[in-house]
Design goal:
The chain is α/β, with parallel strands linked by helices. A four-stranded parallel sheet has the order 2-1-3-4, with helices on both faces. It is globular and about 35 Å long. The two termini are 22 Å apart.
């Protein structure tokens, strides 16, 4: 069963994502604190990261940038999540190495 790491500061939203993933045969790992994203990734070795763009303390963009300094988009796909419809954010995330 493949692990998918959900990094989102909204516990309710994370839980819903987690339940949907479980129903589809994945093992969700939920992280509501982006400050420990790197160590969680090293520990859990997920196949995919779903990363909220707007996180307190350490932004999703900063987490993505740190991840891409260690792992390529082929080694660890990252899909950014956001409720904000800002084309600059989308462009920035893709430029930083988000898969989608």
């Amino acid at each position: 069963m493949q692990k998918i790491l959900i990094i989102d500061d909204d516990p309710a939203g994370s839980k819903v994502f987690g339940m949907l993933l479980e129903r589809n045969g994945f093992l969700p790992v939920i992280l509501n604190d982006s400050t420990i994203a790197q160590e969680t990734i090293e520990k859990e070795c997920p196949a995919l990261v779903l990363l909220d763009l707007n996180m307190p303390v350490v932004s999703g963009k900063a987490v993505l940038e740190t991840l891409r300094n260690k792992l390529t988009s082929l080694e660890l796909p990252v899909v950014m999540l956001t409720a904000v419809d800002d084309s600059r954010d989308i462009t920035d995330c893709l430029r930083l190495g988000a898969n989608d």
